[in-house]
């Protein structure tokens, strides 16, 4: 499995996929820089009149619901139709879906207009989507992550998608497999947008491996977290420095580094 992850990381760099993003305005630049650092090409295209045609030519589509304006909502539906027309894989980050009911309504609308490949959120967001009680504060999870693997598995089976819940241990599930990733650092909690950024990276990886989005999702989260582990060794507990060093180390992360440093349990 880990060889496949290394291979997917190499393919992002060699294939330079185009990643269509409609994402929140808090962290849009961070998402673009993360995708660029991986070797893929981000494009933020979010006018309703542009989204269908652009999703058609993209390698993947990333929809992040963080600051969901009315215009973004319209554009997302157009983009989903465009992506569906060309079987472009789609990932959703359901930011704050447990505390803002409108987000769930929009996810349902998206789902009615096309095929979702991956939903990636923090533990509270994923539990809420699964109808399980969870602790959240706005966009942040306060959840302990108890039974998170069962929740992910059930949601993955129910919706026929890959589900990824991030946190100290990331859990990824499809209808048959699970992965637990223990790479990472809690310093990600000190910068806004770590979740949005890793979502962009998932979009880059599923673009080059659309036939197995489970392993592509694991690759992205693992690579992101290894770069974070390496960054804290240089930056120390300094969020601003960490953020800058992180991009350098993500950009320089090699497939061999993933082979050596990944801490993934496959079940
Ligand atoms: N305590 C932690 N230890 C290790 N990695 C973490 C920790 N908290 C978050 N991460 C990592 O930071 C990224 C963002 O996750 P998370 O904080 O759950 O998302 P969000 O920012 O959407 O709330 C993920 O790659 C996750 O693995
Ligand atoms: C602060 C904030 N408010 C709306 S979206 C957003 C960014 C959330 O970023 P992340 O989910 O990656 O922590
Ligand atoms: Mg988030």
TrEMBL record:
Pathway: Cofactor biosynthesis; thiamine diphosphate biosynthesis; 4-methyl-5-(2-phosphoethyl)-thiazole from 5-(2-hydroxyethyl)-4-methylthiazole: step 1/1. ATP binds at residues 120, 166. GO terms for molecular function: ATP binding; hydroxyethylthiazole kinase activity; magnesium ion binding. Substrate binds at residues 44, 193. Its EC number is 2.7.1.50. NCBIfam families: PRK09355.1, thiM. Catalyzes the phosphorylation of the hydroxyl group of 4-methyl-5-beta-hydroxyethylthiazole (THZ). This is Hydroxyethylthiazole kinase. Its cofactor is Mg(2+). It catalyses: 5-(2-hydroxyethyl)-4-methylthiazole + ATP = 4-methyl-5-(2-phosphooxyethyl)-thiazole + ADP + H(+). The keyword Nucleus does not apply. Keywords: ATP-binding, Kinase, Magnesium, Metal-binding, Nucleotide-binding, Thiamine biosynthesis, Transferase. Belongs to the Thz kinase family. HAMAP family: Thz_kinase. GO terms for biological process: thiamine biosynthetic process; thiamine diphosphate biosynthetic process. InterPro entries: Hyethyz_kinase, Ribokinase-like.
């Amino acid at each position: 499995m880990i060889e496949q992850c290394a291979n997917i990381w190499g393919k992002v760099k060699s294939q330079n996929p185009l990643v269509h993003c409609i994402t929140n305005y808090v962290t849009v630049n961070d998402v673009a820089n993360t995708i660029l650092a991986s070797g893929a090409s981000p494009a933020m295209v979010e006018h309703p009149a542009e989204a269908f045609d652009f999703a058609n030519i993209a390698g993947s589509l990333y929809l992040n619901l963080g600051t969901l304006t009315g215009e973004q909502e319209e554009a997302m539906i157009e983009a989903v139709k465009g992506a569906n027309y060309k079987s472009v894989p789609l990932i959703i980050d359901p930011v704050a879906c447990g505390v803002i009911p409108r987000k769930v309504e929009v996810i349902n609308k998206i789902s009615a207009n096309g095929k979702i490949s991956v939903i990636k959120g923090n533990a509270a967001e994923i539990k809420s989507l699964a109808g399980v009680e969870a602790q959240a504060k706005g966009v942040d999870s306060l959840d302990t992550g108890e039974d998170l693997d069962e929740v992910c598995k059930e949601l993955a089976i129910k919706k026929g998608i890959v589900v990824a819940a991030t946190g100290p241990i990331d859990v990824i599930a499809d209808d048959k497999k699970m992965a637990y990733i223990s790479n990472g650092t809690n310093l990600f909690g000190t910068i806004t947008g770590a979740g949005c950024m890793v979502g962009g990276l998932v979009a880059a990886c599923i673009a080059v491996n659309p036939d197995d989005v489970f392993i592509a999702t694991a690759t992205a989260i693992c690579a992101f977290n290894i770069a974070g582990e390496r960054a804290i060794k240089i930056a120390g507990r300094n969020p601003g420095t960490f953020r800058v060093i992180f991009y350098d180390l993500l950009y320089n992360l090699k497939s061999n580094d993933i082979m050596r440093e990944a801490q993934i349990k496959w079940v």
